[in-house]
């Protein structure tokens, strides 16, 4: 495993990029403005793209250069552009219906990171990898997944839920770049195109929701029950 045998310089670089991605998840969690969600997601995707290129350089995985370019193009540019078009077309600028306030969400997110750290430390100790970047990668991956689930749970604006799903997937993708950088290139490309399809489908569903119900809040989907 590359992450278990890193020199201090690449380990510090990977750690900085991973922590930066996690902090951007908290930016999304603590804001109600959809554009802030979007800009934070785009920045997070660029950090993951840089991470992919760095892992490719230090681990001699040439295919990760392609993954880095595709990540920057799809996650960092194309997906934010498509979501921004949806926001402008729907004229929805902020989250209105929330279960928790931003401050409460940040506190729960912090507890999620502590929980992820405890789980990751136990896994690292069991694999004799305690004190390596493996623990940090697992912590960031699990934390971003939990934050993504939290956003899906406490935010009801359809755009927020799209971005929550993308944050969750970004966490998995980030962890995979550090822990299993030899993942076949074809799988990486399929994942990126799947995300494009998901965003396109969400865009169509949101527009139908607005035209039929008059709002983009997923709370109105309860009308379909039964």
UniProtKB/TrEMBL annotation:
GO CC terms in record: plasma membrane
Subcellular compartments: Cell membrane
Domain of life the protein comes from: Bacteria
Chief localization: membrane
Coiled-coil segments on the chain, per record: none
Cross-referenced InterPro entries: HyfE-like (IPR038730)
UniProt membrane topology term: Multi-pass membrane protein
Keywords: Cell membrane, Membrane, Transmembrane, Transmembrane helix
Segments crossing the lipid bilayer: 12-30, 37-58, 64-84, 96-119, 125-150, 162-180, 186-213
Protein name: Hydrogenase
Species per Swiss-Prot/TrEMBL record: Ancylobacter dichloromethanicus
Gene: ehrC
């Amino acid at each position: 495993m590359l992450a278990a045998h890193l020199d201090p310089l690449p380990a510090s670089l990977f750690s900085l990029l991973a922590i930066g991605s996690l902090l951007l998840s908290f930016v999304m969690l603590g804001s109600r403005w959809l554009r802030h969600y979007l800009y934070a997601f785009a920045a997070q995707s660029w950090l993951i793209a840089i991470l992919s290129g760095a892992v490719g350089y230090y681990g001699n995985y040439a295919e990760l250069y392609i993954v880095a370019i595709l990540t920057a193009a799809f996650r960092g540019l194309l997906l934010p552009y498509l979501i921004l078009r949806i926001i402008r077309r729907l004229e929805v600028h902020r989250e209105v219906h929330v279960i928790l306030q931003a401050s409460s969400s940040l506190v729960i997110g912090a507890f999620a990171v502590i929980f992820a750290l405890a789980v990751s430390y136990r896994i690292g100790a069991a694999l004799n990898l305690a004190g390596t970047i493996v623990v940090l990668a697992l912590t960031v991956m699990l934390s971003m997944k939990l934050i993504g689930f939290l956003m899906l749970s406490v935010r009801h604006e359809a755009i927020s839920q799209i971005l929550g799903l993308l944050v969750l997937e970004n966490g998995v993708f980030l962890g995979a770049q550090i822990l299993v950088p030899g993942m076949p290139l074809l799988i990486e490309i399929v994942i990126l195109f799947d995300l494009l399809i998901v965003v396109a489908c969400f865009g169509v569903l949101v527009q139908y929701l607005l035209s039929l119900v008059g709002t983009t809040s997923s709370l109105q989907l309860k009308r379909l029950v039964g």
